[in-house]
Amino acid sequence: MPSGPRPVDVPRLRIALKVYRVSALITGVFLLLLVVMMVFRWGFLVDIELGGPYGFLALTPKEQITGINLSTVILIVHGWLYVLYLACDFVLWRLARFSFGRFLFIALGGVVPFLSFYFEFQVPPYIAARIRATTGPEPTDAAPAAEEVSA
Question: DUF3817 domain spans which residues (predicted)?
């Protein structure tokens, strides 16, 4: 398969990149919440309870939770957000036509803490370079028109 996006895919690729950046940010935040939750669950043997008898938010042993188990909610929400993150990564892979190894490397962003934040800033320049290689540099407003220079 040839490397680089097809010119017809460039508009969709730019939209997919914006959606990817948002999903990387949200998935990264929930991954950090998940890490905190796991430290509480396995380190201190408590879960995060919402709206229970011990207050609005409380650290409560799992057996004593009567409100909403926020730890379970964080687990479920992060799982679904990671699926969305993988879908965005897949769309970028299909439209930008980069290697499958890079696809797998970017997929780690939803599993390794802080990696999605790194990819949120590293993937857009990479995709922009691939777009430039396909379509050429975008025109800028900084360059004066030929009529303005001669006048």
Answer: 17-122
